[in-house]
Amino acid sequence: MNIVKRCIYGFSIVSLACMNVQCKGNKKVEETTVETKTTDSVSIAKSEYGTTSKGEKVDQYTLTNQKGMEVKIITFGGIISSLKVPNKAGKSEEVVIGFNSLEQYMKDNPYFGALIGRYGNRIAKGKFTLDGKEYSLAINNAPNALHGGPEGFHRVIWTAEEAKSGDSAALKLKYVSKDMEEGYPGNLTVFVTYTLNNDNSLDILYEATTDKKTVVNLTNHSYFNLSSDFSKPVLDHEITIDADKLVPVAATLIPTGQLTDVTNTPFDFRKPKKIGAEIEAKDEQLKNGLGYDHCWVLNNQDKGERLAASAYDAGSGRLLEVFTDQPGIQFYSGNFLDGTLPMRNGGTYARRTGFCLETQHYPDSPNQKDFPTTVLNPGENYKTTTKFKFSVK
Ligand code: GLA
Question: pTM of the entire structure?
Fold first, then answer.
């Protein structure tokens, strides 16, 4: 593999100060050398990952900090292909579902680690109207449209630009989605910047502009398993979601239009609760989602980026905190993983061996007049942030 190390962290002497005490008469000479060292604490390296069946070159970028965190991102789908963080014993291990080849990522898979757009989540019957004109999308999750269409943003090649400044390393991805691509109006220029910081957090900044009125709802579809044991379901993970309300859905996972109180339901995660605690309860919403596959109405929507959700695995001690400025979060308990897709080192990903915390607007917002708008007009800047912060306790 042709790895181009763009930056190797290590010590660099930035100043060398010599203090001389001049000799006067028989007084002794003192000479002190002061070395000021700084560290290039976060590094970014590029390597070739493969070539798509259409002949497009795909690169992989590895972002590494000095606290044991390493994130790999590929330019196909802007996918987080690997994310390693330390457990309570300090051992850095894999915590996201993924494959170990481009060939496998190119086959059909449920959006492992991918960037999702132009509209994340479902749009009822694949139809929406803007300024009196109806738009039709591919029905890729019958009878609805899901996650931006068959190719969406998760199967396209993003261009990448590296940036680094001491305590963080960033990868700025760009994709231009053409007018009417996947059925959406307007040329949409999208930037997604992944930034690894030295406090074991990964920031994702989503930005977009359009030249025609359109709808936008971007997110990342990583499946976490903080235990790093992908042969086991995530049911023991404790989840917290700062939300008093849920976006309930009908059988096809399209919102009913109401927002319901989570009190006394399996959807109350205001205090930490194991995923498995009530997932099998007799509940209409759990039946519709085959488990958790819902959008929560996050509290404090006027506060900008705030702590929205967390996940904790007691065995490894790993804690993931999710901060976002978005109004909603889709918590999906991996209900459709079915043991057909290969794990990196043998075995297959079985049901509920990973969970997603997808920060976003509510599903089907383009058809729901009472939901916060997802319309983007020319001249406006779509800009939203999400932070995945890891620690141990
Ligand atoms: C999303 C959806 C789920 C499912 C997964 C992919 O999170 O909400 O219903 O489609 O993607 O399998």
Answer: 0.90
